[in-house]
Each structure stands twice: as C-alpha cells, then as structure tokens.
Amino acid sequence: MSDFLKRLFNGQSGQPEGGGEQDAIPKEPFSEVLDVNTKRFEDLFQYPLNSALKQRELQIPSVDRRAMVLFVDGASDSDKIAKQVIQPLLELKPKPGGESVDHLVDELKNNVLTISGRETIGDLNQAVAKLINGSAILLIDGEKQAIAVETAGFENRSVAEPSREIVIKGPKSAFVESSAINQSLIRRQVKDHRLVSETMTVGSQSPQEISVLYMSHIADPQLVENVKEKISQVDRDAILTLSQMEELLEVRPYSLFPSTMTTERPDRAGSFLLEGHVVLLMDNSPDALIAPITFWSLYHTAEDQFLRWAYGNFARIIRLCALFFSLLMPAIYLAVVTFHPEMIPTDLMLAIAASRERVPFPTLLELLLLELTFEILREAGIRVPTPLGTTIGIVGALILGQAAVQANLVSPLLVVVIAITGLSSFAIPDVGLSVMTRILRFTFVLSAHLMGFVGIALTFAVMLAYATSIKSFGVPFFAPLAPHMPSSRDLFLRPIVRKQWLRPLSMKPRNAVRAKPEGGDRP
Amino acid sequence: MRRNGWALVGVLAILALAGCGERQELETQAFVSVIGLDQGEQDHQVNVTFQISNPQVNTTQSAEAQKEPPSDIVTITAVDLLSAKELAQSSLSREITFSHLQTIIVGENLAKGDLFSHVIGSAIVDPEMRREAVLIVSKEPAEAFIHANTPTMETRPHKYYEFMEDNWRKTGFSPVSNLNTFFQRTEGELFLAAYATTERDSVGTKHDDEYLAGEVPQASGDPVQMIGSAIMQKGKMVGTLNGEETRISQLLRKKNLIETMTTTFPDPLNENYRISLIMNQSAHTEIKVNTDRTPVKIRVNVPVQVKVNSNIALEDFTTSQKRRDALKNTVKENMEQASDSLIKKLQEEYTGEPFVWYATARKNFWTVEEFEEFDWGEKFKKADVDIDYEVSIVSFGEQLRPPAFKKLKEGK
Fold first, then answer.
1. Which residue range is the domain that position A88 belongs to?
2. Residue range B92-136, pLDDT digits in tens
3. CATH class in words for B252-412
4. Which three-class secondary structure string do you get for A104-162?
5. Which of A14, A219, A438, B252 is deepest in the core (most CB within 10 A)?
6. ipTM field
7. For chain A, which residues lie within 8 Å of any Cβ of chain B, measuring from their own Cβ?
8. Nearest-angstrom CA–CA distance, B277 and B186
C-alpha cells in the first residue's frame, strides 16, 4: 500500500526516458543546392507517407533561378501564399541596372514579397519550427539562406460571450483559442506602451509559444523573473494547453488550494495586469492564466466592479454566505442533529425527529447518500448532451429528492439542506474554489460526525491555519488582509472606486499609487 | 518521517473517536418538555412526572400518527430527578433527555417543604438541564396539574408553555424569571415564581388584577390559570403575591422585564366608573439606597407612560389640561398606594425583597463580606421606602374624543 502510494506520488513509471531522440531535428545550415534542401525537408516530414508538407516549385523569371515554396497543409493559408508570395515572385521584372546576385535573398525579402511578416533563416531547425507554426519557407537555388514568410492560417472561431464568468452588466467578449486574438483583446483593454508581451517556448518535441504579459512599470521584476524561470524549467515533450501549464507552474500540485487561476474575460485579465499580476497566454487555450493569486481573486467577480457600490457589495455578501453554506451547511446539520439537539427550536427538532423515525439509516449515511447523489447529478449534468441538460438538472434533483423522501430513504429536511448547499456551491464564482469547497465539505461532515461542533471548529482552525500559511509565487493567500498590508481594502467588500487609489502592497508593485490618494490605507 | 505520520494518525484517531460516545440520533431520544415535582408518600422521596413530547403528532405532515396522544405522561417515585429519569426508562423505549426541557412545575406541597431545594439543587448538576427553564408553582400536585392541563389551542405541550411565558411579558400577571435567577438568589433574597392552578376557587369579583391563580372569574375555556406569584426564599416557598402585587414588583425593579400591562383605575371624573389604561415604561426605574443612616433610606422613582385606549365613562380628557392632570394624579396616587402596601406586606411578613434592590445597596460596600454583615434582609424590614411615580400620558387612542352619546342623553 505505502509502496503504491510512494510510486503514485513520485510519478515513477519505471520506463527509461528519451525515446524520441532519433526524430530530433538536426541543427545544420542549408546547402546551396535546392534539391538537397528539399530532400531534407521531405525526409523530416516523411514525405510520401505524410501528405502534410506541400511544395510548389517555380522559376523566378527575373534572375532565372529555381525556387521552392514549402508549407504545411492546414497550418498556413494557401490563398495568402499564392497572392502574396508566389505572384510577386513570378511577376518580378528584371531590373534594368546590374544584377546584384549577392543580395538576392535580402532583395526578395525587402522589396518583392508584399507580406509584412518575413524573416531570413539559416538552418533547418528554425525552418521546421516556422513551418509547423504555419509559415511558408522560400528556398532559392544557390542560396544558403531561406526566407520564412508568416502565412499562418489556423482555423479560429470568432470572439464569443464568456460561458463561465457571465455578467449581466459589463463587456461580453471572451478569449478564444488564438493567442494573437487574445493579445489583441487584452491590448484593447489596457492601452499602455508599457504592457510587455514576452514570448517563450515550451515543449521540447512539439514546441508551443507561451506569452508572458505584464506591466513593466507595475509588476514586481522579481515576480516576472520567477514566473519566467518556472516556465523555462518546464521540461516536457509537448504541452497542449494552459491548464497543463498551470499544474506545472504550481508549487503544491497536491494542495486543494489553487495558486493560479484562469479567467476567460479580457477585462479581468486587464485589471489583474494593472494590479501587478502576470498573465500567461497560449495558443489553443481560451483563457488567460493569472499568477500569483490570492483568496480575493477567487472570491471576486468582474461584475463586483461594474455594478454600483451597494449592488456589488450586496452580491459579495451573498457570495460570502454561499461560501460558508457550501462549506459548512451539511456538517452543521449533522452536528446539530446528532450532538447538539438543544440548539434547534423545539418544533423543528420534533419535526426532524418525526421524519427520521422511519428512515432506516443513521444521519451520516443519509447525508452522504444524498450528497453523493447530488454530486453525481452535477457531474452528469455537465456531460449530458445539451438538449437533455436542463431536464436532468432540475427535474432530476426534484424528482429524486421527492422520491427518496417518499421511499423513506432520507428525511425531507435533509433534502432542503443539501439543496441549499448545492445551490450555494453554484454561487461561488471560481471553479477551483467551488470544487475545493465541495471536497472540503466532506472533511467537515466527517469531523462533525466524529466530534460535533468541536470537530467542525477544529477542522476550520486547521484549514484557516493552512490557508494563511501558503503562498502563491511569494504572495500569501489571504494578503493583504492577513498578513495585513496597505491596500485599497478591496477584500470582503469593496470601497467606492474613488477610494481604490492604492494597489495592494502584497504584490510588491513598483508603482503602488493609482490615483491621487483619497481614504484607505497609506503605504 | 513515516513513523511520525503513523503517530499523528494515531493521535488524530484517538482525538476523533473521543466524541463518538456523545453522538445520538434524534429519533432514539425522548424529549421531555415538562417536569412535575411532588412530595412523595415517604419522606425524602419525590414523585417526578415527565411529560414527553410525541414527535409524530402535529409536527410534520409526512410523519403524522393520527391516533397517538400528543404527549406521554409518566410519573415515577424516586429519591431524586436523575434516578427517576433512569427508572422511567423501565417503561419507556427511548432515552429520556432534558435538552428541550422548558418548564418545571412544582407542587405547592413540595415547594413549601425543605426537600425541594435539595431536589432542584441536585438536578441542576445534570449538564442536560437548561437553566432557562421556567419554574412554575402549582397549587395542586404537579402530577394532577400536568394531567389536567389540556389546552384547546396548543396540542403540543411545549408550545403552550412557550406562548404562555411570552404572554407574561405583555401582561405582567406572572413574573418573568427562570431557574437561573432562582439559583442566583440563594442568600435570602426573595425569588418570584409563577403561580398556577387548574382548580377554581371562587372569591367573587375584585378589581381587575387583584386575583391569584384560580380566583379569576372564568366560565369554560382552558382549565389552567396562571396569575400571581409564589415567593421563594432560600429555595423554599414562603407565600404568594396576587396579580397586582406581582406587576408592581416588576415595575419596582431597576430594569423592568415587562413590555406593557393593562390595568384599571377609578375614573377621576366619574366615580361610578373605572378607566382602563395601558402602562409601559420608557426609562428604567431609578433606585437610590442610602445605607449610611438607620433606618436605611430607599428612594424609588418609577417613570410610567400611560395610554388611554378604553374609557368606559366616556369622559373627554383631551380638551382640558385640568382633566388630564386629574387622571395623572389618580394613576400616581393609586400606584403609590398599592406599592406602599406591597412594601408594607413584604416588610411585615418576610425578610428581603424581590426587586433586586440589594444589588443597588451592595454598591455602597467595598467587600461582599461587609455587605453580608450588614444583613440587608433585616435592614430592609425597617427601611424607610419612598416610592414616587412619574406619570406621563402618551395618547388617548385613535379617536381623540369619546363619542357624544352623553351629550345626546343630557340634551334630551
């Protein structure tokens, strides 16, 4: 058992590493002979077998040289290649003056190709990286250099409304699977020349670009360095999405408490940038990864700031109640019913006692049964095909609850308790926080079963102690509340926007003041 | 590291399992809502009556048992409450618990004896016992009282007592007190417990609140009457106060627990009629005790507000300051007279007072010993008590003037 656990947590599979070395791309310069170069590409892409690599041979009339345009089917836009690469080459008129054959590649790159993104490359390794990212490679006979032309043409869906972080009032665009579009969405929010977007590459076999965005005049340079170092340390053959990246960046991947979060809202990403956080974007991921985060990032929603002060804070109070209900409600019910019946009003106590009389199980079992059913219902609700989804959700819960009560499997009050708990967990804005409370809820139920209120209090104390001790990229989880640091006090409740003039110092911003001071803490 | 881990798990398990013994499911418990205590046939024995709520009656529709009684009443003779509780288990399938016990009824017989303080004193040791339980003294044996108490409106016994006790705050007929206050006043201070009976004791009609339980002229209706109070001293019943005296004793406290009370006074304008007033207090009663002189001087200033919501003489008070002053004076005089006679009664018959004046007097001493030596109870017997009522009229009801029937009559 312990061996198994050890193996599980160490992640050893027993297999030696480094199986794909024979496929590594040789880092060698191009040859002067066009056919040799072409052959190399064909070998690398396993040409006749693999139909991905497309070739288009042509004769450049003006200099009378053979040339070859290579691109990967599906990754690049063939229309663009035809109109902006091949057509200008074919239409090139010979220059009246002396031909400068020495600078043919530069001449072509600068004066012939009409497309804006182009680059001279000298070796095969670079060329392949460009090819798989959608660029076309122009090889010219007799030249040791090639030109990479940016013709990426991946299919993209258009910017849509967010599906997780829905607001009634406020911007309604969400990130899509294209990093370029996502960056433009953020730039639209934060119009500042100091918004830096650094590009890094992750994945040794199938490299992916990851963009690190931060405000150079706000973000703590050490934090940025820290994040970049973490990214460069990642050693995997391929990383497909940001969610995978999220786990690789985390210090405590086994912890229930998240240390990074994702948002699908460009406006939220923008506001995090302005507080000094680092935002990561990656192709194929319709969200942005925020680091570091605190409890407040998980507890707040975008709408809190969009709504007027009172409305936004009202929503926050409700959400706080929901958080506690979701975490503690079943445990409190269990503790009260089995340990502290004197706490309930006599009428309610008698009603529970009467309905429990015919239930054959102890309260704990009854509670776990219903809780489990609800969790299954929720899981099923996500997987069920959309036309059936709503039916399963509402009808399932109601009918199941009703039937369980009639069959004397559970008492009616418990159905109410579980329903409120379930509803509350939907009110928690962040997926991570929501799942965390769902899991912790079972811990609380167990401790309530063992020791009643004392158990709940002990577990809560342990949980709080742990939560205040952990850090995400050096920022404590409950900062700037505990440990207390100067901030605009946008914590459980938010002050009016005019008083939010100070960035939380827990983020160690280079420039803490947003506006002329008005109320709140002084740094 | 791993050994430490196992040790930790072991400690946690011990910690966690330590609570298991206390756990009990609701349906396995029998919740006692009322306890009755009576003198047993032999000395040092008590008859304990448990009234146990039946959860299946009148609580929830889904578990309704139609033919069962709303409560089960068991009487056990034993030496104390705890052994009676255990003995009752011989006939009862569920485990008896006092966690929802709200009312303790004591037969007058037992309350007047020495045994009562022992029984109730040892009962409070039980951690299940709630100190906010209300103590009621019944004129007849508590067992008979519990059996006879079958209110029409409230099927479940706990609800009846709950509503009844809420009522006291609005009428003042019975003192607002509980077991906790009872145990606070063990040094000779007087404690007032509610007085109740199911018997009828016709004494003819008196002024509205001067009755004791059983004397209220009532035809039909519920059998129980709760009015007046039993005076307890050192855990022993020593006398009774009627409704009026009970009300006044609440008013004379520094902090009045009663919200409003309705009472009648002779109409100052028409001696054939009485006028009904609703009284409440806007500020706390002011008490000043001078312990330096003999006899002790006690000054009490009671601010009361009066509302005229019924005016059977149909006299118009609103137009004349003189008439209003006359009304104020009547109230003041009557209240002061009644208070003085209550004080006189207490000074003559008992040592001590139920108004918590001792707390004010105690402030004049540096140590508790000094105060104990002072012997407040004896000093109070001879004290010079000056009670002053400050009456203000708040309103004359929704309709300012009474209807003009009288004028019509006079006109004819």
1. 23-149
2. 999 999 989 989 999 999 999 989 988 888 888 888 888 889 999
3. alpha beta
4. HHHHHHHHHCCCCCEEEECEHHHHHHHHHCCCEEEEECCCCCEEEECCECCCCCCCCCC
5. A219
6. 0.86
7. 2, 337-339, 341-342, 346-347, 349-359, 362-363, 405, 412, 447, 449-452, 454-455
8. 36
